[in-house]
Amino acid sequence: MNQLLTDIRSGVRMLIKYPTLSLVAILTLGVGIGLSTTVFCVVNGGLFKGLPFPNADRIVAVVTTNPAQNQPRQAMSVHDLAVWEARQTSFDRIGAYGFAPVNLSNEDGRPERFSGGQLTVAAFEALGVQPMLGRGFRAGDDKPGAPPVFF
User: Fold this and answer.
1) Cβ–Cβ contacts within 10 Å for residue 126, how many?
2) Residues 80/64, Cβ–Cβ less than 8 Å
3) Fewest CB atoms within 10 A around its CB: which of 1, 22, 72, 131?
4) Which tens digit of pLDDT belongs to each residue from 17-26?
5) Is the pLDDT of residue 39 over 90?
6) What is this structure's pTM?
7) DSSP string covering 36-105, please?
């Protein structure tokens, strides 16, 4: 026990004697521990726990590519989606999603820009979830000319 106390006193004296080296060592340890924790959280959440949906192991993403123009991922047109839905036999459902900025206004009429998403009816059905606000989509809500849905 005496040896442990002697080692601790010696360590504290060295920290005081070389403050710059001590600060660098403490910062290096802090950054290393922080990065290790971050990587663990990402790996644990993404690989081990999986997606937070029922039957998450059965959800896949299908994308279109254009290797001739060096485009590894590109947006799919609505017409292509309809063709895929009609001809596919491997999936229970095919849903589409996209991200786009949207402008919303309140009673005053002042618009405010938000990051928004667009989903087809089948996307919510494929994920097995309901919207947090408002009602869920019904068949035909995502077709051209359908009346707007408000909650």
Assistant:
1) 21
2) yes
3) 1
4) 998 988 999 9
5) yes
6) 0.52
7) HHHHHHHHIIIIIS--SSTTGGG-----EEEGGGTEEEEPPPHHHHHHHHHH--S-S----EEEEEEEEE
